[in-house]
Specification:
Elements: E1 12-17, H1 22-36, E2 40-45, H2 70-85, E3 89-92, H3 121-135, E4 139-142, H4 152-170, E5 177-182, H5 185-195, E6 223-226, H6 231-240, H7 250-258, H8 260-263, E7 265-272
Helix pairs in contact: 1-6, 2-6, 3-4
């Protein structure tokens, strides 16, 4: 695939994610949608995902407590995922391996000297500012201040992205709009109802939607990106992360029941910038670039 040059693209989207595979689960359809439309999509991944749980027995020896080579393997998985999504511009924050996967909150791995959770915020944000200076994105996507579900690296990715956006704005090239990934409560409730009583119910241990560590009131959602035409690309990108997403994953289970409706529709909160025209009872945007009237200059 020919690389799209930044200067040729009037729409430029930057995403900041914590680990390989995070890009697919919450934003894969959005990335594929805008890449197919000719936008310049830049993915910045903050760690190699060294502490991930391995679901392929033949790769078990790569785990952190043994060979500690999972990060190198996931680097290739991310490359295949981006190819499936049509994304040609993928960067590692500060370079591949600069920051290490911190593991889940409260584990000893949080204290590793290279753990992203321990990263100096201004230093890490400085690496992202350099990418912003080159790309000049009008739209930035990252997590909310709880990292969507509380993972320390997701929280740190949020902090780094927001600090970098502020620094870039002070220099005159900050993004026009910043979105945080989100899931409407109505969608979560519908999912819980649809799977009630089924053998492969991913919500089996939950009694109500408030028991989930995420979920956003519908009125706080700003954008709904319907990219159902990219359903197959998102599935292919998920399968590229085979070490992390097993064939019997609940993601494939839900996809099998709802298909493109689940895999191809993604939601966002607007954290910065003016909301563009929308529709429906809450005025949800259907385009993240809605309301942006002029492309940011590229040096």
């Amino acid at each position: 695939m020919a690389r799209v040059t930044i200067a040729d693209t009037p729409q430029r989207l930057l995403l900041v994610h914590a680990h390989p595979d995070d890009e697919v689960i919450g934003t894969g359809a959005t990335m594929a949608h805008y890449a197919a439309a000719g936008a310049h999509v830049t993915l910045v991944t903050c760690t190699l995902g060294e502490e991930g749980e391995i679901h392929l027995p033949e790769l078990a020896q790569l785990e952190a407590r043994q060979a500690d080579q999972l990060g190198g393997y996931r680097l290739t998985e991310l490359a295949r995922s981006c190819a499936a999504l049509g994304v040609t511009d993928q960067r590692w924050l500060g370079g591949a391996g600069r920051y290490r996967d911190s593991g889940m909150m409260g584990l000893e791995t949080n204290n590793h000297p290279r753990a992203f959770w321990q990263a100096d915020l201004d230093e890490a944000a400085g690496h992202l500012v350099e990418i912003m200076r080159e790309v000049r994105p009008q739209v930035l996507i990252t997590y909310d201040d709880n990292g969507f579900y509380g993972h320390p690296d997701h929280i740190q990715a949020h902090r780094v992205a927001m600090r970098a956006a502020g620094l870039a704005a002070a220099e005159g090239f900050g993004p026009d709009k910043i979105y945080w990934t989100a899931m409407p409560r109505s969608v979560m409730e519908a999912g819980m109802e649809a799977f009630a009583g089924s053998a492969d119910n991913p919500f089996a241990d939950l009694e109500k939607v408030d028991d989930l560590p995420f979920g956003t009131p519908d009125e706080d959602i700003a954008a709904k990106i319907d990219a159902t035409e990219q359903h197959d690309r998102k599935i292919a990108a998920l399968r590229a992360h085979a070490s992390q997403v097993p064939d019997d994953s609940w993601l494939y289970s839900i996809a099998g029941n709802f298909g493109g409706e689940f895999m191809g529709v993604e939601y966002y909160r607007l954290a910065h910038g003016a909301k563009g025209p929308g529709s429906g009872p809450h005025g949800w945007e259907s385009d993240l670039f809605a309301g942006i009237t002029a492309p940011a200059p590229v040096p």
